[in-house]
Automatic annotation (TrEMBL):
This is Transposase. Residues 1-26 are annotated as: Disordered. Signal peptide: none annotated. It comes from Palleronia pontilimi. It comes from the Bacteria.
Length: 110
């Protein structure tokens, strides 16, 4: 199962000299997404990306004893991965979007 977060609400409006942050600074709702590679997916609006927020939601959706988790390198996800049967991740800040050795990526969840 791949998990990731997204922010929804349309593109920032272009205003002369306006600062339009992306990601966590947008003020847009955060959506937590879990997607399996067979096409099933679930999503929920969450308050933040902290482990304490995400873990109860994820545990409603999956069985941690049998689930292989794939995420990006976020600290929240690393904590979640410790409770799963397996955890593979990619580190976007290092320009790693897929790992051919492990098969890890979060492109399905994106």
């Amino acid at each position: 199962v791949e998990v990731d977060e997204a922010f929804v609400g349309g593109a920032p409006k272009s205003l002369s000299g306006a600062y339009n942050p992306r990601g966590k600074g947008t003020g847009k709702p955060m959506i937590f997404v879990a997607a399996s590679r067979d096409g099933q997916a679930r999503a929920r609006v969450v308050a933040d990306d902290k482990r304490a927020t995400l873990e109860p939601v994820l545990l409603e959706w999956i069985d941690p004893e049998t689930t292989s988790l794939m995420t990006d390198g976020s600290k929240s996800y690393r904590g979640l991965g410790k409770t799963m049967a397996d955890h593979q991740y990619v580190i976007h800040s290092q320009k790693e979007y897929a790992n051919p050795e492990t098969g890890a990526h979060v492109n399905t969840a994106d």
